[in-house]
Write a structure and sequence with these properties.
Length: 231
Amino acid sequence: MIKEAIILAGGLGTRLRSVVADIPKCMAPIAGKPFIHFIIEFLKENGVEHFIFSVGYLHEVIEKYLQENYAELNYTLSVEREPLGTGGAIQLACSKALERNVLILNGDTLYKIDVATLSNFHQEKGSDCTLSLKPMQNFDRYGVVEINENGYVQSFKEKQFYSSGLINGGVYALQIEPFLENSFPEKFSFEKDYLEQIVHDNSKIFGMIQDEYFIDIGIPEDYERAQQDLS
């Protein structure tokens, strides 16, 4: 069972500035609480015991919130002094991890997967990285992930309109050692420069379908929907 999580909480929230103040995206208020509250509570309910918050933009706001509201939480801060991209942020945060495997989540997305099921699948497959895949209909905001009958990731398709497909829900189980053995630059994209590259190298990248609640508050329409869903 994976009991450690990296939360990517360094986003600028530029697309939300029409509806919320200039704050980190994960701190956008939802039903009177910062969005990150819902992610923390979900992970606690699913057995996560150590949190690594990957922070950057206005990280002091997040630190103050954690100090005042989660003083009892076992957490570590991984601070980007400049934007490193999702890959660079994960690479830096992994250096602070205590376990061999870690969950990775986006601070602007709540995807209520079953963590134990993902953990078991990830470890049974000996996977380097396991993606949680959300079935979706009639969308153009996300690319599509194709897997075979064993869950092995075969390809990533670009964003365009799809009538149905599996999207990358942004929750990963990552085996740290193989990931850090790659000679990545300091700044890179986890999706483009890691996942989409090594899928062609016969690496062990798997996807697991979890048709659970999913909300990404990155655009105003879904931010407003979250206000209703999570109230």
